[in-house]
Amino acid sequence: MADLERKAKEAFIDDHFELAVDLYTQAIALNPTNPDLFADRAQANIKLNNLTEAVADASRAIELDPSMAKAYLRKGIACMKLEEYQTAKAALEAGASLATEEPRFANLIKECDECIAEETGETKKQAVEAPLNTLSLKEEPEDISSKASMVTPSKSKYRHEFYQKPEEVVVTIFAKGIPASSVTVDFGEQILSVSIDVPGEDAYHFQTRLFGKITPDKCKFYVLSTKVEIRLTKAESGLHWASLEYNQETAVVKRITVSSEIAQRPTYPSSMSKRVDWDKIEAEVKKEEKEEKLDGDAALNKFFREIYQDADEDTRRAMKKSFVESNGTVLSTNWKEVGTKKVEGSPPDGMEMRKWEF
From 9, 80, 201, 345, which residue has the greatest number of CB atoms within 10 Å? Predict the structure, then answer.
């Protein structure tokens, strides 16, 4: 294991960061309780921009050794790159209390304050990313004692899924019969980290950058007989998460909150005190039209129009044919009578031609 660690450090110094991560992973498989290995792998993951992995490694190093200042530093740097400024600041402040002589903590904490102020609208000043890009993270190799206990690398042995409500996201990890003492859940502004470490079994780690931001202080988790239920309180209630994990290409869709009351048409200023029932008015108009009392030609025209409207196809054909062929003097509804011959007719003396409307 010591040889793997030495080679990993050499690979990091030579800027072979992928090789360094691979070698540190092999070393961790041999000694999973060594916090330095996790902290150093976090450093290599930051160089590769594997930021959620870096946060997970740094958090694991802190769990194993809460007094390790460099683990807090690396967690803070990774969280800042993820724009998790509140979480970054908390980690950096904890590290600063352990390494008071290290100026990088103070500089990064100041930068976090500026970014937090910008996010909350207290200042228009833009966050400066240069210090993050120019920090020298290389450190001198350190001698680390080794323990030769063989452990199988961790595997994703549990299935997880999620669903959401307007105000929260519920993540379920299906793990049966897990002791509560074996479950560790950490909440960041936009990071969820879950560890299940049952003695004698492969450790399970689930770390992800979430689709949206959460309020860590309001988040909770419960270890039940068949699952671990994690309730994430959304920082912005009503924001719909298209997925659990952050994806730069996924559009953010606002959930439209609909009142439980019956939706109404837009209202405009009016002197009317009551809501207008347009369906009722339309029915009344049709009824009035039907019952309308007309005289003379208007009444006769209305009568024939109603006959045509309610008639079958043969009746309509008979009415049209007889009317056209007789120059408006005959109107028959019997197709058998007028269908086989031309309808002839002429108005009686003194009778005007009428124009019937069908």
Answer: 80
